[in-house]
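Narrative summary of target 7.
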Amino acid sequence: MQTRGKNIAILILAAGAGTRMGKAKQLLPWGKTTLLGNAIEAASTLGSDVFVVLGAHAPQIKKEINQKVNFIQNDNWQLGMGTSIAKGVKHMAETKAYDAVIIMVADQPLLGSAYLQELTTAYFNGPEKIVATIYGKGHGVPALFDHTYFDKLSQLDQDVGAKFLMRKNLEDLKGLHPKESLTDIDTWATYTKLFNEHFPKNEAQNHDS
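Modeled conformation, tokenized:
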């Protein structure tokens, strides 16, 4: 098997409005940082370039995030995650040559740096060009795509997302079962429960504050 390059970019999707939360979900407190800040910290441990796709709340998020990242604006964020992936990968690939990209979201705080490292290790050790997280009978993010998929990723839209590419290229796909929880923070109940479980000495901020 040909040796694979180790120049892997990280693309964090953080363009959503968080309408069910009533505020910018990306900036909800998580430990000493925020949900997005936590995702950036996890990504940064790989020593890779980190790109963050923003849409709703972009000015507010840029003001609050002090970490070294490359922000990408998706003005079509309301059309779905596929548009954010396309915008992000296109911009990333134009920045410099990367061997692969890990696509992740900001609202899965329990999938940290250790799991991202598992994705990269599986990629380096196997022939597959896509390494994705197993969800029941399907696959999703976090997911790693070899550079040979950059063109296809940059053409995604609201109707065709990354999961479509995975289903259509099963011969290239390796699935991983993470040891950590796959919980997405989509409601206040989920956020408060997870926050208090992991930071019991603190209380999650009330959504009216």
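Strands lie at 8-14, 29-30, 33-34, 50-54, 70-73, 100-105, 130-135, 138-146, 173-176.
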